[in-house]
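Students often ask why we bother encoding 3D structure as a string. The short answer is that it lets us treat folding as translation between two languages. Here is a chain of 220 residues written in the first language.
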Amino acid sequence: MTISAVLFDVDGVLLDSTAAHRRVWDEWSRLRGLDAEKVWQLTFGRRPEDTVRDAAPQLNAAAERRLLEQLLSREEAHFPPVEGAALLLRSLDASKWAIVTSGDRVPVRRRFAAAGLPLPDVQVFATDVDQGKPAPDCFLLAASRLGVAPSQCLVVEDAPAGVRAGKAAGCTVVGLTTTHSPNALSAADFCVPTLQQVGALLTSHVSITDVSGRGMPFSD
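And here it is in the second language, the structure alphabet:
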């Protein structure tokens, strides 16, 4: 397998945001009289407004997103890095990887800074595309901005919607089992439990190349 770039999801992959997001969605569900567990299962890898449309189509998705952002602002101290994230990201040339997230630009950047994580040159956020995951738009945009064919991109995702989006874009997908079981991520090409194993996969089994096809080292 030869790739030229790595595309990382953020929540559940680089930032351990599960507990914070669960508190927010549970509170929102309580306020709206909805089944919190059913709502929670609709959230993974998706933009908040898309979850709202499925969970409560009678509500105004834009207005509910604003409420969710207010609730989420209380959780800003609770987005630690996933174990191994800093080491892995710092081993990469900033021009060879991207973040592709259903989150918003300002809070995601703030959380990366607080977690001590570097940011790459290419960053794709929820508002950059018309259709969120599981549509492939976000990964196609990231590949385009990197100047790399989607077939030469490795996607790292923790949610079924993200895995489907990566595969639909034509990328090779690694399912990181931080939030879902391997069975739930069975559409991925590989499943691994840790970012350390993502790094091992890259260094041991993947040939990183530049766009011209010349071999390049994994780290800068």
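Translate back mentally: Residues 24 and 208 are 39 Å apart (CA to CA). Keep this in mind for the problem set.
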